[in-house]
């Protein structure tokens, strides 16, 4: 019976999208172009270097080296091996879905158990500093100082999720033998790195080529999800579905003493973060604190668009999606609460953190983040085109050899 219901739901959603695309072709094209531009100019060029670097570092054993050294930190805090530190750091630096991509690769390399991989995925997918400071703080709210509040709430909340998830699956793990603790040393870390590289039979050129192709393949998939959810969110709004669902969120927000007018932007943000954050920043009924509390929640929740990307990355592995989904709810709640706590000391009283009591002007920093965003939109398409061309040449070269 459950499977039949799923069939009806999936078929109904697909039919709704098909009919809406035919009925509203202009609006669908506009939303599709918006999603494409975001991927073409920002997402692809900003994530590609991180993806390729991560693939190479895993292939050459450097991640194993870091894992041995970070084991005393990651195991007590998050109950994952030291290699998880690499996924955590890269996930925070480059943004989602980098953490899921690296966690899946580490699971494929048998450096993580299933439970450990599920723990790791739950707290290694975070918004990048470029998105928090550049797009949200400067691009939407025109105030770079808000990035400090949003960033601190987001990353500390993410760490709290990792601490909570350390208890996930402990009953299952008790059934398996616990590996013996080994002394941490640089010599042993180097040996593990060397052993990992030696056990990989691929030549250097093949490793680099695979890193490029795998990264581009993942980013093309990410682009497809961005475009799809951009169109899907627009169609829901045009068809009048979004306002109906937003009325439920409006009641919940009023219970939390938050403006009910933020219900529609919140719902949009649950589907697509950028659209939701932009709509929240434009709301005129709520004060600044109320706005950034909602923004922090949707940043932690990741949005269904990002969650779909993560689900697609995890699908080839045995890593289950449910722990990641529930962790996103916790992350959103933690980030929202921390934003309320950090707002006064990190934003209203910001000058108390500066040396010699000199007030800080956000002008220079704001111009810096604006410059980065502008620079990315200028060179981003060229990087994307060059990378796609490189991937095509690699595929042609390998096809000829076969």
H/E series: HHHHHHHHHHHHHHHHHH
Residue stretches low in confidence (pLDDT < 50, at least 5 long) are: 351-361
Q: What distance separates the N and C termini? A: 48 Å
Classification by helices and strands: mainly alpha
- How would you state the average pLDDT, rounded? 84
Please outline the major beta sheet.
Answer: none
| Beta-strand share of residues | under 5%
Fraction of residues in helix: over 70%
Transmembrane segments: 7-24, 44-66, 120-142, 148-168, 207-229, 235-253, 292-314, 326-348, 372-396
Keywords: Membrane, Transmembrane, Transmembrane helix
Protein name: Sporulation integral membrane protein YlbJ
Pfam family, one: Gate
In short:
It is built from 18 helices and no strands. The chain has about 400 residues and is an all-alpha fold.
């Amino acid at each position: 019976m459950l499977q039949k219901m799923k069939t009806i739901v999936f078929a109904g959603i697909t039919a709704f999208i098909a009919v809406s695309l035919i009925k509203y072709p202009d609006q669908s094209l506009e939303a599709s172009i918006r999603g494409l531009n975001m991927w073409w100019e920002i997402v692809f060029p900003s994530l590609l270097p991180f993806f390729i670097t991560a693939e190479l570092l895993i292939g050459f054993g450097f991640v194993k080296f870091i894992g041995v050294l970070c084991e005393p930190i990651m195991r007590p805090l998050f109950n994952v091996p030291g290699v998880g530190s690499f996924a955590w750091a890269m996930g925070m630096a480059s943004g989602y879905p980098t953490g899921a991509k690296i966690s899946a690769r580490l699971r494929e390399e048998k450096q993580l158990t299933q439970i450990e991989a599920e723990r790791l995925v739950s707290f290694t997918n975070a918004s990048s500093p470029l998105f928090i400071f550049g797009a949200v703080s400067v691009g939407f709210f025109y105030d770079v100082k808000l990035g400090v509040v949003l960033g601190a709430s987001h990353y500390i909340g993410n760490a709290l999720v990792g601490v909570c998830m350390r208890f996930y699956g402990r009953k299952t793990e008790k059934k398996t033998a616990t590996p013996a603790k080994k002394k941490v040393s640089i010599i042993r870390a180097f040996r593990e790195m060397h052993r990992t590289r030696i056990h990989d039979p691929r030549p250097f050129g093949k490793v680099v080529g695979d890193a490029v192709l795998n990264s581009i393949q993942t980013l093309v998939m990410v682009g497809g999800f961005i475009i799809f959810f951009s169109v899907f969110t627009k169609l829901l709004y045009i068809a009048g579905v979004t306002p109906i669902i937003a009325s439920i969120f409006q009641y919940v927000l009023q219970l939390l003493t938050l403006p009910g007018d933020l219900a529609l932007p919140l719902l949009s943000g649950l589907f697509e973060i950028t659209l939701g954050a932009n709509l929240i920043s434009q709301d005129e009924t709520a004060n600044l604190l109320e706005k950034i509390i909602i923004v922090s929640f949707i940043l932690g929740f990741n949005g269904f668009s990002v969650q779909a990307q993560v689900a697609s990355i995890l699908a080839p592995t045995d890593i289950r999606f449910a722990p990641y989904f529930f962790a996103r709810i916790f992350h959103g709640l933690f980030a929202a609460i921390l934003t309320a706590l950090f707002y006064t000391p990190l934003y209203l009283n910001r000058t108390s953190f500066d040396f010699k009591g000199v007030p800080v002007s956000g002008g220079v920093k704001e111009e810096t983040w604006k410059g980065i965003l502008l620079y990315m939109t200028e060179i981003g398409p060229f990087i994307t085109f060059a990378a796609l061309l490189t991937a095509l040449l690699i595929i042609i070269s390998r096809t000829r050899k076969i």
